[in-house]
Amino acid sequence: MWLSLILVAGSALVAPVSTKAHRRLRGSAISTSDRPPETDTASETADPLAVAGTFDLLAACLKAGLPMSASASAVAAFAPQPLSESLGRTAHLLALGADPSTAWDVVATEPATEALARMARRSARSGAALSSAIEELATQQRTDAEDCAVAASERAGVLISGPLGLCFLPAFVCLGIVPVVIGLAGGVLAGGLP
Question: Using CA of residue 146, residue 148, residue 151, residue 156, what is the dihedral sign?
């Protein structure tokens, strides 16, 4: 048994490990300037709650009376990364006098802000107020994030039952069923059933 534990520990040290695991194992030995940039796809998608907060800020700016270009420019500084860049470019295009449908094409490429781009284009054509629609969009974004979190927690509860079953089933068989079968077999083999 000790030999198998030593072999498992040795293989863990020799096996190729991801750079994230190496960083975690080495702790603070790597300074922030030595760290390579993150290239995960998770870092490219915006946090849904941060996007909802950005929508709330945009709605507040519009309710305060700022024009759309100034509102988008002010909010872009505090938005999560993919949204920040696209909102900033849209704000600059709107400030330069570009057609709103063309300016909002940049934001339409982001999955989290596709609805915002549709609403802004519609508002530019019809002249309808956009702040209340953006507030509803923020509420919808939060609801979707909550639904995803609930689904992930329910999925985790289901996935944990497999390993627990694999651990408890052999123990139940060894401690619950085997002694009963041995006791019955001993009585049957010793002299039959009374």
Answer: negative
Residue 84 in contact with residue 77, Cβ under 8 Å?
Answer: yes
93 Cβ partners below 8 Å, 6+ apart?
102, 103, 106
Tens digits of residue pLDDT in 1-44: 666 667 666 665 555 555 555 555 555 444 444 444 444 444 45
Q: Is the pTM of this model over 0.85?
A: no
Contact yes or no for 179/187 (Cβ under 8 A): no
Angle between helices 114-126 and 131-172 (to 10 degrees): 160
**Which H or E run includes 93?**
helix 81-95
Could you report the per-residue pLDDT of 164-192, keeping only the tens digit for each? 888 888 888 888 889 999 888 887 787 75
CA 56-60-62 angle, 5° bins: 115
